[in-house]
Design goal:
This protein has 60 residues and is mostly helical. It contains 4 helices and no strands. It has one domain. It comes from Nostoc flagelliforme CCNUN1.
Length: 60
């Protein structure tokens, strides 16, 4: 979001997700317990990126 200068409200409007949902996803330090494919797809489309740009995998 920072790289694309998009605020939470703007991203919510573009994706159709609730602003609280986006805020919660931004606040996670670890992978959220549940992130469905459609939400990830909406975020990637809106931010013009790939899932790997949004997620970081760290093995236990």
């Amino acid at each position: 979001m920072l790289e694309r200068d998009i605020k939470t409200g703007e991203l919510a409007e573009i994706t159709g997700l609730h602003p609280n949902t986006i805020s919660k996803l931004k606040a996670y330090r670890d992978m959220p317990k549940r992130l469905d494919r459609e939400t990830l797809n909406q975020l990637c489309k809106a931010l013009n990126c790939n899932p790997g740009d949004l997620l970081k995998f760290e093995p236990d």
